[in-house]
Amino acid sequence: MRIKVSAGIAVAALLLAGCSTSNELSTNGQSVRFVEEKPGTECQLIGTASGEQSNWLSGQHGDEGGSMRGAANALRNNAAAMGGNVLYGVSSPTQNLLSSFAPTASKMTGQVYKCPN
Fold first, then answer.
1. Coil, strand or helix: which one is 14?
2. What torsion do the CA atoms of 41, 44, 47, 48 make, to the nearest 10 degrees?
3. CB 111 within 8 A of CB 87
4. What residues form DSSP beta bridges with 110?
5. What is the pTM of this model?
6. Most exposed of 2, 11, 20, 72 (fewest Cβ within 10 Å)?
């Protein structure tokens, strides 16, 4: 009986740890930058990317903006995986009245461009 209880606690701890992880910024993601002005003709539009961070356990306001930081890291990582190095027109459609009261997932989307350094 004691082994079953210990195994159950271990499984629950692993499940909770999996829900609370944040998106780490990859080495390639570090080279992706956000811009406010639309990139010029020297840049190539690759497509649209998104990034998401679950807030189920951590809530909206973790360390350094927690969930939004995780969503931004995921967005930058995804843009880098597409071959881009610039994000333009980034928005957060999940930030609304409900997200002020309940820990909904944070999501960011933006246009991915490949620009000369």
1. helix
2. -60
3. yes
4. 49
5. 0.70
6. 2
Nearest in space to 47 (alpha carbons), one of 116, 117, 110: 110
Q: Cα separation of 95 and 8, whole Å? A: 36
> DSSP class of residue 93?
T
Neighbouring-strand partners of residue 49:
110
Residue-by-residue DSSP string for 35-79: ESSPP-TTSEEEEEEEEEE--TTT-S--GGGHHHHHHHHHHHHHH
pLDDT digits (tens, 9 = 90+) for 49-105: 999 987 655 444 444 456 788 999 999 999 999 999 999 999 987 555 555 555 567
Amino acid in position 28: N
Count of residues for the chain?
117
H or E, element range at 86: strand 86-91
